[in-house]
Amino acid sequence: MNKIQTITVFIITFLLFSSGLIFAEDSAPKTLFGDFLSISGYGGVSVEYARLNDETYGWLTGGRGAVIIDDTFAIGGFGKMFVQPTKRAELTGTPYSGEEPYVHLGYGGLLLEYHLNPKDLVHLSVGVLAGVGGVSYSPYSIEDDEFDTDADRPTDIEAFVVVEPEVTLLINLTRFCRAGLGVSYRYPYGLDGNENAAELTDSTLQGFNGILQIQFGWF
Questions:
Q1: Burial label, 77 (beta-carbon count in 10 A; 0-12, 13-18, 19+)
Q2: b (16+ CB within 10 A) / e for 6-29
Q3: Consecutive 10-residue runs of the chain (219 residues): their mean pLDDT?
Q4: Is there a single domain that holds both residue 91 and residue 143?
Q5: Residues 147 and 168 occupy one common structural domain
Q6: 50: closest CA among 189, 188, 193?
Q7: Domain check: are 48 and 153 in the same one?
Q8: 115 and 153 part of one domain
């Protein structure tokens, strides 16, 4: 085989290979959602500073996770727990000298978010948290050894409903991690006039939260 024949065979082989790639791309199977819809997700933790009963401040820790649709809309769940104050009188603003001085309080439920320009280095998200919570009183704090026994754990847990809109400023730290500073406003319902909730009322828990959160996922 001379040089011209060798070059001719090479060119024909190259053209056949290239046309095969083009044909393979054109023959990709059609799908129901195509390429216009992407699915990802994240999980995260938060620390929150809360305003309570118009004069007391508290701390919450929480977690959240969501499925992200098309990079903008997220739907998932969340959970939060008050870690300070743990004293009943501090939370309600009413003096207490009985046998159950400690309060245990948390809530969780559905999370909905919408992200504006999520691929930018810094972007905003707006969302709403909606769910149910529980409050109970106990002779012991969760940090006490006695709290680990079933006999000393609180049994009367009173439920309430919570709706909490929020706005968050997020910064993309890496492809898989972002941090956020946000503010939310908590609207509880169902504590007023409830004997098991005692001094705790809807207005006690109603108020602003300042939120610091870290999220890990595929953004």
A1: middle
A2: eeeeeeeeeeeeeeeeeeeeeeee
A3: 50 46 49 69 95 82 95 96 85 78 92 95 97 86 56 68 97 94 95 69 89 93
A4: yes
A5: yes
A6: 188
A7: yes
A8: yes
